[in-house]
Amino acid sequence: MCDCANCLSLSTPENPRRRLLLGAAAGIATIGATGWLEAAHAEVPSNDIGGDAALKRLMAGNARYAANKPNVRDFSAGRAARVKTQKPIAAILSCSDSRVAPELAFDQNPGDVFIVRVAGNFVNDDGLASFEYATKVLNVPLILVLGHNNCGAVDATIKVLKENAELPGHLPELVNAIKPAVERASKGDPKNLLTAAIAENVRQAVQRLQTAQPVLQSMVQQKKLMVAGGVYDLATGKVTLV
After folding, report:
1. Which of 25, 124, 211, 239 could bond 230 through an S-S bridge, CB–CB 3.0 to 4.6 Å?
2. Which of 132, 167, 40 is nearest to 178 (CA)?
3. 41 is an annotated ligand-binding site residue
4. Does the keyword Secreted apply (predicted)?
C-alpha cells in the first residue's frame, strides 16, 4: 500500500480536493436518484387529445419504428402512477400473429395503447365489449384496426373457399368470421386476392366498430371517437392506412 504524503493527503476527508470530488459525486447520485423517483411516480398523461391527434401520434411513431429510430425509453417511468390509472390514446384491434407487436410498431410507451388481439383481426362480441370498455371507461379517442400482409388466417379462409380445405377444431369459426371479406374482395377480381382480402377484412372490421350499438356508434356520431384501419408490412415495418 502506498504511504507517500501526497496519497495520504488525498485520502483524508480534510483534503479540500477530496471533499470537492466526494461532494460532486454525492450530488450526481442524489440528482440521479431524485430523477428516477420523479420519473417512476410521474403522473399518467391525459388522453384527451382527440382521434385525429391520436392517429397522427401513432403514425409518427410508426415512421420512427420503420426507420429504426425509436425513442429512447425508461420503461420504469410512470410505472407506479399506472397502478392507479391508465389513459391510453388508442385501442388497437390486432392480429395475434407473433410478428406483429403494436406497441413496438407504433413506438409507444407502456400504457399508451389498449390492445385486443385475435387471429385475423376481426370483431367478435368479446372484442367488441373490450372496445366498449376502452372507449366508455378509459375515454380512448381512437380505435385502429391493424391487419398485416401475408396473414395466415385470411389465407386459410381463401383456401377453404377456393380449394375446399378442411380445418380442425374451432378453426372453421375463425374462417366464418373472415369469409365475408374474402367473398367481397373476390368480386373485384384482384390480381392478388390475399392482399385484397386482407385490406377488405380491415375495412369490414372498421365498419362494424363504427356502427356497433349501443355504445360505439353514438360516440362516433358525436365525434368523441374515431375508427380507422391500416395494414402492417412485415418486411418494412410500415403501416399503410386503408
Report:
1. 239
2. 167
3. no
4. no
Question: Class of 51-69+85-241 per CATH?
Answer: alpha beta
What radius of gyration do the chain's Cα atoms show?
26
Q: Is there a binding annotation on residue 7?
A: no
For the segment 172-226, what is each residue's pLDDT rounded down to a tens digit? 999 999 999 999 999 999 999 999 999 999 999 999 999 999 999 999 999 999 9
More confident residue, 151 or 27: 151
Indicate the domain borders of the chain.
Answer: 51-69+85-241
- Would you state the pLDDT for residue 19? 57
Q: Residue 84's pLDDT band (boundaries 50, 70, 90)?
A: confident
Q: Which residues contact 22 (CB under 8 A, 6 or more apart)?
A: 13
The three-point CA angle 216-58-139 to 5° equals 35
The 8 Å CB, 24+ separation contacts for 31-40 are 36/76, 39/74, 39/76, 39/77, 39/78, 40/76, 40/77, 40/78, 40/79, 40/80
Residues with Cβ < 8 Å from 49, sequence gap 6 or more? 57, 89, 141
Q: Say if residue 22's pLDDT is above 70.
A: no
On average, the pLDDT of the chain sits at 88
